[in-house]
Amino acid sequence: MLQQKIQIGKSGIEVPYLGLGTWAIGGGSWWGDNDDRLSVQTIQRAIELGIVWIDTAPIYGLYHSEEVVGEAVRNCRDKIILSTKCGLEWNHETPVFHKNVDGTRVYRDLSRKNIIDEVDHSLRNLGTDYIDVLYTHWQSPDHKLYPIEETMDALMTLKRQGKIRAVGASNVTAEDIREYSRYGQLDVIQEKYSIATRRIEKDLMPVCREYGISIQAYSPLEQGLLTGKFTMETVFPEGDVRNNNPSFRPERRKKILNVLDGWKKYTEKYQCSNANLVIAFTANLIDSLHILAGARKPEQIEDNAGALAVDLEESDIEQMKKDIEILNE
To answer: Which intervals hold domain NADP-dependent oxidoreductase (predicted)?
Structure first.
């Protein structure tokens, strides 16, 4: 499966379905301190294993993730597909407050000027002269303030200039997708998706099919819950992002862990980890789905890469689909 590639929308860019997400590599209070040396080794190991779509964002560690990624890919830029994001800003205020990140007030700004300025900053952080996929990270709740027509005009300008190769959008509605597509070529959306969080199947998948837009799923392991490494007794420290995730609440966590317990026969059959199994199965839930899995240690990306070798039998896929219906109740 490693050599099989999927096209990103209509961009002509093809990659294996599994990519590396670098949110955690940015560190900060959500993720704790990182060893940047290990982060660089993790990214380089991913590339060696054929995981060549590396995704980052300025907001991850307030530029830190982009800087670490830039260091890691300095000597292998031509071997990877690199994506980053725009639209979140903390160097100036806007009318749209996003959230507080480690004491820094972050705002949304999808204006033409800010997008173009942000991309130039990201290019410097990443040490490259082009970005393969640029996502708008969060959408404006008021399209009169930042019209999608203006946002897309900036993105298409950057594409014509050769600074980006494809346009993506994250955290969108179906109407957002339609409007982006009205003003240019939207190739991919990036949304949270896992066997425990399947909202996009009803809300976004139909319109993506209509326009030939790819989907890239983040948090496919539901922030680690689907690895099977946590139990009902696992407690996370105050401020940990998982404390706000509905899947970690006792009643829902129990359902999820019961499903994983029933899948031990599959991890034995395919000689793989829970993470391998879940990633491989998730890739079969939506046609041509791209999946981002995070890692910040080489052994984590080596485990994730094992999913590429898991070739599930159709009968097992169908049974597993039935098993997860309990999570929709």
So the answer is: 18-322
Token digits of residue 19: 């990519």
Q: Which of 45, 54, 122, 52 is nearest to 86 (CA)?
A: 122
CA-based end-to-end distance of the chain = 33
Residue pair 260/228 in contact by the 8 Å Cβ criterion: yes
Q: Report CA-CA distances (Å) from 284 to 46, 201, 279.
A: 22, 13, 9
- Which one is catalytic: 60, 63, 146, 270? 60
pLDDT in tens, 169-216: 999 999 999 999 999 999 999 999 999 999 999 999 999 999 999 999
Q: How far apart are CA 321 and CA 329, in angstroms?
A: 14
Helix (H) or strand (E) holding 290: strand 290-294
- 60 is an active site residue: yes
pLDDT digit string, tens, across residues 225-275: 999 999 999 998 887 778 889 999 999 999 999 999 999 999 999 999 999
